[in-house]
Amino acid sequence: MPYYVYELIDPRTNVTAYIGITYNADLRLQQHIHDNTNTKKSLWIQDLRYANLAPCMRIIEELDTKEAVLERERYWIQHYISLGIPLANTLLIVPRPHREHIDKTQVFPLPKRNFYTSKEAQELLGVNTHAFYNMVRSGKITKLLIPGRELGVYPKAQVDKLAHELTLTNATASRDVKKKLKSSTVKKPKLPEDLYTTSQAMEKLGISPFSRVGIF
What we know:
By secondary structure, this protein is α+β, with helices and mostly antiparallel strands. It has helices spanning 25-33, 40-50, 66-82, 118-125, 129-137, 156-184, 198-205, and strands at 3-10, 15-22, 56-63, 115-116, 154-155. It has 7 helices and 5 strands. The strands form 2 sheets. A 3-stranded antiparallel beta sheet has the order 2-1-3. The chain has a two-stranded antiparallel sheet with strand order 4-5.
């Protein structure tokens, strides 16, 4: 019997909110939707229900044993936490029993220390806007949408790691350039000891460079 690791996605933001495991995806989704307990996850789903919405389920992995699926569940939870995404597995959500009292911006408060705005990320990376969004489009940086914010944010751990890599790359490139410049510098040939340059000879003979004496 196959086991599945799945994620529940908030349809308002398209952000992963919960990681779980099951052997029957359809049944487990219905259990989540009709869960009225006081857990962090169910309180989040109740917020969705007040807005006439439901979480979206996506299967991440299919495995053969319960031991394997439990291990991968732990992996995916840690993966999203490392990106700074506030999963309902760990996030405390205050229940709001009446729809008119729901403050959607408070469902997933933005943990500021875990994210950068685009401006903050660009300053840290030392790149312009065009270069930064090229990094986002190429997948080097993940753009996240958080409820209550119109603009996307970017995981701090991911941006910090990329900034460190760019610093090392720039330092290596700078050293290489210096080596090339040093190696390409033309060295003046050393004059044999029994010869003088023109200026040395004139100085030795006490002749001015403006002298009309036709020695040279």
